[in-house]
Amino acid sequence: MAGNLRLETACKAGALAGRLSIALGRGRGETLSGRVILALDSKAISKLSSDRDILLVSGTNGKTTSTKNLATILREFAGEGVSTSESGANMPAGIAALLAQNPRNRFAVIECDEMYVPEMYRKLSPKVVVLLNLSRDQLHRTGEVRKVAALWHETFIKDDVTIVIDRDDPFLEYAVTNAGHVMRVSFSGRRHPDAATCPNCAAILDWSKGDYLCPCGLGSLFPDIRADKRLNGPQRNTVLVVEAARLMGAEISVTEADDLISSAPDRIHDFLVSGKKVPTHLAKNPESWRQALGDVTADQVLLSVNARGIDGRDTSWLWDIDYSNLIGKKVICTGERQLDIAYRLRVQGVEVSTASNFSQAVQSFPSGPIQAIVSYTAFQDLLATELGINKSGSQ
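-> C-alpha cells emitted (395 positions)
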C-alpha cells in the first residue's frame, strides 16, 4: 500500500511539474515530469510497466518515427489503446513520464536511447524489442558503434523476449548472438559503412557477395523473412515494426502490410516560415544525413546544424558525408555551426551562403520549392516555435 501511495504521489507531482513547464514556455514538460517522478520514486519505471505489454524500439536512426508508426499500427490492427511518447523522449525521465500517462494502456510502445537499452530492458521486461540499425552517431554521446553492440550483446542473453532485427547489420547480428528468440529480417544485404571488421572476432568481414560473412560464423544464419532490397530506410523500419505488431496479436494481411510499407512515414515535417512551406527533414548523424540528401529534389536547399547537447559537440562527422547531390543548387546554411557545414560544402564544390537564422534563410530564397535538412535541436526549435512554446524564434 505504501509503495502504491508513493508511486501515485510521484505521478501526480510529475504531472503538475509538466503542466508548469508548458505554462512557463520551457518545453513540452515530459522530461521534467519524469525527473520529478523518479526523484520521488526511484522504482517508478518498473512499477509502472508491471502487468503491461511493453514493446521497446531502439537503433541509431528512425527510432522516433518507427515508435510512432508501431503505436499507430497496434491501435489500428490490434484494436487496443497504446501508450507512447509523442515527442521522442527516450531516456529514463521521458520513459517514466510516458508510463505515467493516463489511461495506462496495456500496450506501451517505448523508444529507447541506445545506451539506455540495458537498463530499460531490465526494468521494463519488454515482450518485444525492435532493433533497427547501428551506425556511427555523435561520438561524445554513444561512443564507437562497437561499444553499443557489445553492451547489447551482454544484455540479450535470455529467452523471455522476442527481438526483431535487420540481420543485414552485422552489429545487430552480434548483439543478439546469445538471445533466445530472434526474428531476422533481411533486405538482401548492403555493405555497412562502419563494419569493415567483425564485431565478434575482429577479422576482416567478407563482403564480396554483397552480404557479410566471417570465419567465426557471424552472418551464417539464414533470415526468417526476406524483404525487398529496393526498400529505403523508413520502409525497412516499417517491415520490422509490422512484424513486431504481428507478434503482439495484430492481424495484418499481406496487402495491408504492403500498403503500410509503401506509405512508410519519414521524419519530415512541413513548417510554414515567412509565408513559405518548407518540408524539413530531421537528420542527426551521417547515415540519416545521407538518406536525407538522397531525397533532395528541390533546387533551393536550407541546411541547419547546431552543436547543442544531443546534436553532438564534435562536428567532424560532417566530413563523412557526400554532398555532391547539392552541386548546382542554391544552398543556404544556418544554425550555430553554419560555418562548419558551409566550409565542408565549399570544399566539395557546392556554392553556399549563410544566414543568421532559419527564418532569414527562408526569406533569402526566391519563389519556388525549398527543402531543409536540420539537426535535432534545430528541428525542436522549429517545432517549439510552431506550437508557440518558444518565443525566441526559429534557429
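Residues 2-23 form the longest helix (22 residues).
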